[in-house]
Amino acid sequence: MRVVIFHNPDCGTSRNTLAMIRQSGVEPRIVEYLKTPPDRAELQQLIGDAGLTVRQALRQKDTPFEALGLADPSKTDAQLLDAIQAHPILLNRPFVVTPKGTRLCRPSEQVLDILDNSALGGFTKEDGEVVIDASGQRSA
């Protein structure tokens, strides 16, 4: 099984996650989920495999979350999935699938837990935050 990232190139967290995957020596299959959204079954599988509820997989910031009334606790998983399918920007990102598991990689360094080779050497995020220092130690 390959590594797959459900990616939004406009998202810094997603770009950092992709960079860590690549620095680990893997070229993942990149799914730009805003252009090619997962179908309902794949979406349910992705969320479930990550150990999340549908509500936990929703992105609120810079989305139609409020306008669609998705904060309403009476909304069912089916209604939330319908909303994600109609507005893929509602799916939080990036989700990463590897042979070791599936994670919503927020923060981006969560990807290290599911990579075969997480010994990346030094890694600094785009914003300057050190994830792994020059000696290979993961920052707390």
What does this structure look like?
This protein has 3 helices and 6 strands, in the order βαβααββββ. The protein has 140 residues and is of the alpha+beta class. It has a single domain, classed as 3-Layer(aba) Sandwich (Glutaredoxin), CATH 3.40.30.10. A 4-stranded mixed beta sheet has the order 2-1-3-4, sandwiched between helices. Strands 5-6 form a two-stranded antiparallel sheet. A hairpin with a 5-residue loop joins strand 5 and strand 6. The longest helix has 12 residues. The radius of gyration is 16 Å and the shape is elongated.
Structure summary:
With 140 residues, this protein is α+β, with helices and mostly antiparallel strands.
List the helices and strands and how they pair.
Layout: E1 4-7, H1 12-23, E2 29-32, H2 40-49, H3 77-86, E3 95-98, E4 101-104, E5 123-124, E6 130-132
Parallel strand pairs: 1-2
Antiparallel strand pairs: 1-3, 3-4, 5-6
How do the strands line up in the largest sheet? 2-1-3-4
- N-to-C order of helices and strands: EHEHHEEEE
- Please state the structural category: alpha+beta
CATH architecture call: 3-Layer(aba) Sandwich
Distance between the termini: 30 Å
Number of helices: 3
Poorly predicted sequence stretches spanning 5 or more consecutive residues = none
What is CATH's topology name? Glutaredoxin
Shape: elongated
Number of domains: 1
The Cα radius of gyration reads 16 Å
Tell me the β content.
15-25%
The number of E-state strands comes to: 6
